[in-house]
Amino acid sequence: MKQERWPGLIFAGVLLFFYVPMVVVVANSFNASRFGTRWQGFTFDWYAKLFADRGIWDAFVNTLIVGGAASLAAVVLGTLSALCLHRARGFLLRFKFGLVYLPLAVPDILMGISLLLMFVMVRVELGFTTIILAHGCFCTSYVAMVVLARLQDFDFSTMEAARDLGASPVQAGLRVLFPQLAPGIFSGALLAFSLSVDDYVITFFVAGPGATTLPLRVYSMIKHGAPPLINALSTLILAATFLLVGLALRFRNKEHTP
Amino acid sequence: MRIWTVALVLCLALAGMHCRQGTPTANDQSAEQSQPKERPTLNVFIWSDYVDPALVQAFEEKHFCKVNLNFFESNEQLLAKIKAGGAAYDVLYPSGYAVQTLVKEDLLLPLDHAKIPNLANVDRTYSNLIADPAMKFSVPYMVSTTGIGYLAELGDLEPSWAVLGDPKLKGRVTLLNDIREVIGVALKLHGYSLNTTDEAELAKARDTAIAWKRNAARFDSTQYHYGLAGGEFKLVQGYSGDVLQSQKENPEIRFMLPKEGFPLTCDEMAIAKTSRHPDLAHAWINYFHDGGVAARNTMFIKYLCPNTASYEQLPAEVKNNPAVFPPAEALARAEIVRDVGADLAAYTKVWDEIKAAQ
Questions:
Q1: Which of B149, B179, B338 shows the shortest CA–CA distance to B258?
Q2: For chain B, which domains are there?
Q3: Chain A contact present for B222, CB below 8 A
Q4: pLDDT value, residue A97
């Protein structure tokens, strides 16, 4: 009996730890109090203010642009480099594996500073381009690792079979390899996107005028800003995330039960 | 295959955004731009929510330009960004010691006073306190004081920093999480300058600060006024603007400036050497020292813009609030935190000892 109770308790504890903060944020986004320390009545004020705040929405759009562009670049580069790492052998390739793996281990702050120094050295003006390059850079490693894991389960003899049956290399790649890898590529892309949207440290270093992303904006609001606006924004993002996850689950369920 | 449809749609959406990215500012402009001529863009690097957005819009219209507000949240961030170079900011808002560092590193443009006639409006009481009283490189923008915020239930407190160590308030007090503010007020309690470099004075301040730390709930510079508004803390070392904001939430909050003296912070406006539109940057500084504009800005930010022409336009409740407008006798006790140069190491050592003390 004891053994049966513990997992449940731990599960409940973890759930509480994960979701109670979110509930607090959602509740406070409707709290008339600016500081959220007491309940001072229900209000939609923060949402009205949020929609009127041009700065936050500019930052939000910037974040989506950067996330989209960086994950697109990372997916292409990451997938290619995973393919290459998986197939080839030899000393140089182990070295390359190290190079691709390194950004996962290097502290963000080091990466931010070194990228900044490099951009300054080659005289690239800081702004959108530099943020997208920086994000694409670390996201590529993540995508490569995810796709590489997927490749480990892939049986290359199926490719050979396709070739034997008369498929061209391109056809075999597109119709045998790609569909098998796609879930990996897709989850790599999602991972890259969410990492990019989240990133503060690296972005801070490589950002330039006019390219403020949402994390930069939110962080700068700590001193003088209005926290409830952030609560309201978080609530909207949470709602959108749950909606997307829900939709994705529904699609998947349908696919599994034909 | 449904999941592919979703993936495809996502990819298309991303690609769509990617296309937008080529002209990030052009989009914003096309909406506002009625004239075909290109508007110059003024890049301002400022603390968040530190300017009335309506005034920024008015400036954009008046000078036919686009203002790009970019935010930082500590002086160190600003310094890191400007020192590294590569980013073309025009107007900067460093405070106190950060200005001196920027001047030393030759990163600021000397101001052309002929282009800022409104400098005549700057309150000399404050400009004389800053490191650059002639305003060669920087102009005061907003001042705030560090004092004590407390709940009215504590009754009449002795106006002294010593209350931070009051054992009756154990665990209900906070100190700012700032090396110069904490050591500074401990120095003040003993009657020393908060820019001292004398080791004996610093050692005395350290012992006081350690005693305060043992009495306090924590070091906190960002959330303490929420705790004060909610009653979690009863007494805090805090910035006037923060305490004033929390007063709106909880009218039972009081603010006082201790008799031993207190730190005064002055955020300043300066022009980066790399500025592409120095004329527009001068116009920006001039605009914010126009009496009417300064008064509106003071009302919005709840700090004080040291601009004599604006004072008469401020409502009485602002003028009589010591948290906004320190009375002249109190101001005589104010001191600005300055760059102590190489002696900062002595402060860092003391701060480490305070933080490490049990």
A1: B149
A2: 38-143+265-319 (3.40.190.10), 145-263+325-356 (3.40.190.10)
A3: yes
A4: 84
